[in-house]
Design brief:
globular; 12 strands; alpha/beta; 5-stranded mixed β-sheet; 435 residues; 3-stranded antiparallel β-sheet
Length: 435
């Protein structure tokens, strides 16, 4: 037996020295590659160090260097679109629900079906189903799930202490949230401190959660009609306008200074935030004052107890995709597999990069930030209902319409119902063009 193990180890080392990929836990080679390096594009600098560690481990096993470039969100999509037209895409890159459909439909992304079939480390049933589906088109898979996220309540303990307001709990309803926001706003008026904040473009980590928690919707299940004129949607937006807008800075000021920045400046008592932002607040100067609670619930039954369906968190997940024109498709896929297999997903969580798309691997993420309890991000999956971020072929068009079109309602809440109906009409035109 010892002799057999020694032979396997010797063979593994020899193959690795010859530039053939050998993955952890395997005793035999997989593929020889035709490239010496791969280029990877992402948009979040907070994730760079952890992802580079995973990539470097793959480099040690494969002999292929991985260069990860961080590009700002807006520039990322501009460059990706230009690269798709000009044929100069990175080998591997992130894909988002808002953009995936058009790239899949236009043969920009590498079809991963045959690679997945030959990969014993990847079984799509191990991932959150909704995220797998995001990156599937006409029965084929064009990206592997990278992560999943959820929404929680972020608050500044120092502000709550200063104004004598009780900390948020996991049993808060939106009425409790509103009462605390009003108390902080009133007590902090002379200091320029507000109870909460939310911008027009804070969808997944903002007002989308209200809409679905109140029983409304943004888009129909068949993606053919808008839900912005749904009575429950309007009720949710009206609740925001009447109860929480008075507890926020003006829309004009939030358009100039993002609420995230205001929060870190000590101007905001609490707000909704996504798990993808944990690193930002953990590394902030006053991070010791920051804490998390589960997203509040809508007490539809009026019994003061939270039912599972009464607490809603939006969720989403990125995908790892490769260019259809990458020089070495196998190398590109194998790097993606290294990021997305159980080992890579667990490592991603342990390093505090993001929560995993692979089921059962996210517990390590909530334990990766010493002194900060992140359990609300996972508890909502047990105590509430996750609603997948809505999307269609031209999601960015109607989401952009929200960002600008909602301004009138943010500035004058009395116009909110009219604004919602106007956005529904505009959105329906966009959706009609997709058919």
């Amino acid at each position: 037996m010892k002799k057999q193990v020694s032979m396997i180890l010797a063979l593994t080392m020899a193959l690795s020295m010859n530039g053939t990929a050998v993955f952890a836990g395997e005793a035999s080679p997989k593929h020889s590659y035709t490239v010496d390096e791969l280029t990877v594009n992402i948009w979040d600098n907070n994730q760079l160090d952890g992802l580079q560690q995973i990539a470097d481990q793959w480099t040690e096993e494969s002999g292929v260097k991985v260069n990860i470039n961080v590009i700002t969100w807006d520039e990322y999509w501009t460059l990706l679109e230009a690269g798709a037209v000009g044929g100069e895409l990175p080998d591997v890159f992130w894909m988002h629900i808002n953009e995936a459909q058009k790239y899949m439909e236009n043969n920009v992304l590498l079809n991963l079906d045959s690679y997945i079939e030959a990969d014993d480390k990847i079984d799509l049933s191990n991932y959150y189903e909704g995220i797998v589906d995001i990156y599937s088109s006409e029965g084929s898979q064009y990206a592997l799930p990278k992560d999943h996220d959820s929404i929680a309540l972020l608050y500044n303990k120092a502000i709550f202490d200063k104004y004598g307001v009780d900390y948020p709990t996991d049993q808060w309803s939106w009425e409790d949230y509103t009462a605390a926001a009003k108390a902080i706003t009133e007590a902090g008026a002379s200091d320029g401190v507000y109870g909460t904040a939310m911008n027009t473009n804070d969808g997944q980590d903002g007002w989308y959660n209200f809409i679905y928690d109140f029983g409304g919707r943004l888009i129909s299940e068949d993606n053919k009609t808008s839900g912005m004129d749904d009575p429950d949607t309007i009720a949710a937006m009206t609740y925001l306008a009447e109860n929480l807008f008075p507890c926020m800075p003006s829309q004009d000021s939030m358009a100039v200074t993002d609420p995230d920045v205001m929060f870190q400046s000590g101007m905001i008592g609490m707000m909704l935030q996504g798990s993808w932002m944990v690193n930002t607040f953990y590394q902030a100067e006053n991070s010791g004052d920051y804490a998390w609670a589960e997203i509040p619930y809508y007490d539809a039954n009026g019994n003061g107890a939270c039912e599972k369906e009464e607490r809603v968190s939006m969720y989403n997940g990125l995908g790892w995709a490769a260019s259809a024109d990458t020089e070495d498709p196998q190398a590109a896929y194998d790097l993606i597999s290294a990021f997305c297999c159980e080992e890579g997903q667990l490592k991603q969580s342990e390093l505090g990069v993001t929560m995993a798309a692979y089921k059962g691997c996210s517990e390590a993420f909530v334990n990766a930030f010493e002194g900060m309890d992140l359990s609300p991000f996972l508890e909502v999956e047990e105590n509430g209902t996750l609603i997948q971020h809505p999307a269609s072929k031209y999601t960015t068009r109607w989401e952009s319409a929200f960002t600008t079109g909602l301004i009138a309602g943010w500035q004058d809440p009395s116009q909110m119902e009219e604004v919602c109906k106007g956005l529904a009409a505009e959105m329906n035109e966009i959706l009609a063009s997709e058919q």
